[in-house]
Amino acid sequence: MANVTNPLRRQQPSVVIVGGGFAGLNAAKGLAKLPVRVTVVDRRNHNIFQPLLYQVALAVLSPANIAQPIRTVLRHQRNTQVLMDEVVGIDVAGRCVALASGAGLLYDYLVLATGATHSYFGHDDWAPFAPALKTIEDAIEIRRRVLLAFELAERQMVEHGWHPPLNFVVVGGGPTGVELAGAIADIAQLYMRHDFRHIDPAKSRVILLEASQQVLGTYPRDLSAKAHHALGRLGVEVRVNTQVTGIGPGWVQTGDQRINAVVTLWAAGVQASPLGRMLGAPVDRRGCVLVDDHLNPQGLPKVFVLGDLAHLEQNGHQLPGVAQPAIQMGHHVARMIAADLAGRDRPAFRYFDKGDMATIGRMDAVAKVEWPFKAHISGFLAWITWLTIHIFFLIGFRNRLSVFAAWVWNYITFTRGARLITGDQRLPGWPDEVAPGPARAEEEAPSNPFK
């Protein structure tokens, strides 16, 4: 274990929170008025509003619209400090976490809320060809690839008279996959239709591949069917019961069929942060730590595991890895520590399901509402509900105002102000040199208004 240091005084219990996401931040906020010393550790200096990350990836919003420095969020909490560092080891017996910087932090309570990352189901070699969406860096890379595909097609049309088919393939029909597919269709058909002279972005194909029988598999069947239909109206080709067996530069394999793809995006699976396994407690097949109704792993009453990293079952089902359970778990940890300090019994955690929602495209969404009333809604009403709730839960007034202004501007003008391409100007599988035959050029090339 690293040299143990703790700049906080030890006369009060020390709470170390690892992870500055929904769960970690809400735990820290809940501890603000308790007689404890709180240390929040995260390898990034900012909190991301994950439900809107796909809008950064598709140029609706800029990264600053959905990110807030953790220090800024907690700056008024005198009992809290923030360290930008990474936990590389946990000594449960010694109640100490080791940091990548070489330091160690002693704790009386440890809160692990490091979430999950994407999983390629043992095919990590697919990652360079099919980026997933979990971080700001992922979103910027996806934005680069999607926008670059149109730019390269325009350039190649001018130079060679044709371009490869603009096929965008999204693997995974959960909320992230549905939102990505709908947003790509929107940007191609609505937001870039007048920006190019030699290609027609609206002729792009968006293909959504889902291995199970329906998109939005955790949603009620009626909402899944409505989402499927709404994607069809946008021109998205939805293929269910379709297992991806291979991904390479410029192609996706499904059984014996190979689909050409200028951009492939991965939204098919997640795995828990590796920190959970460091506890030595039981984990499920995704690496999530099995916890009881006090959010404790087996035999570790001073350790709490929250959010996507926790496997907690309620009414026979595992709680979903979305924002609401993480937020509620964060609040509840603070209540349990407060109960310990007061000598009371800890209250058991009970998730209050307020519902689920996913946006599909411009003015379209589906929502399962559980509170304050039960309903299944779709279309424009669900879209307005989605907008309102996401504005409300954004951290910081500036972010709320900037996101609202961006949405209004996009809605009125059909333009997106975050269409920036940075970094490499190549795409995996895009041909560097092209010499098409006349038949191929005639078949694949859109009409050229300059001829």
Topology:
Layout: E1 3-4, E2 14-18, H1 22-30, E3 37-42, E4 46-48, H2 53-57, H3 63-66, E5 67-69, H4 70-73, E6 80-84, E7 87-91, E8 96-99, E9 103-106, E10 109-112, E11 116-118, H5 136-160, E12 167-171, H6 175-191, E13 205-209, H7 221-233, E14 236-239, E15 246-248, E16 251-254, E17 257-260, E18 263-266, E19 270-272, E20 289-290, E21 303-305, E22 310-311, E23 313-314, E24 317-318, H8 323-342, E25 355-361, E26 364-369, E27 375-378, H9 380-393, H10 397-413, H11 438-444
Parallel strand pairs: 1-9, 2-3, 2-10, 3-6, 10-21, 12-13, 12-18, 13-14, 20-22
Antiparallel strand pairs: 4-5, 7-8, 8-9, 11-19, 15-16, 16-17, 23-24, 25-26, 26-27
Keywords for this entry:
451 residues; alpha/beta; FAD/NAD(P)-binding domain; 2 domains; 5-stranded parallel beta sheet; 11 helices; 27 strands; globular; disordered C terminus
Descriptive overview:
By secondary structure, the protein is an alpha/beta fold. It folds into 2 domains: 3-43 and 85-118 and 270-342, 3-Layer(bba) Sandwich (FAD/NAD(P)-binding domain), CATH 3.50.50.60; 126-268 and 363-428, FAD/NAD(P)-binding domain (3-Layer(bba) Sandwich), CATH 3.50.50.100. 30% of the residues lie in helices and 23% in strands. The protein has 11 helices and 27 strands. The protein has helices spanning 22-30, 53-57, 63-66, 70-73, 136-160, 175-191, 221-233, 323-342, 380-393, 397-413, 438-444, and strands spanning 3-4, 14-18, 37-42, 46-48, 67-69, 80-84, 87-91, 96-99, 103-106, 109-112, 116-118, 167-171, 205-209, 236-239, 246-248, 251-254, 257-260, 263-266, 270-272, 289-290, 303-305, 310-311, 313-314, 317-318, 355-361, 364-369, 375-378. The strands form 9 sheets. The protein has a 5-stranded parallel sheet, with helices on one face. Strand 12, helix 6 and strand 13 form a beta-alpha-beta unit. The termini are far apart. Mean pLDDT is 91; it is low at 437-451.
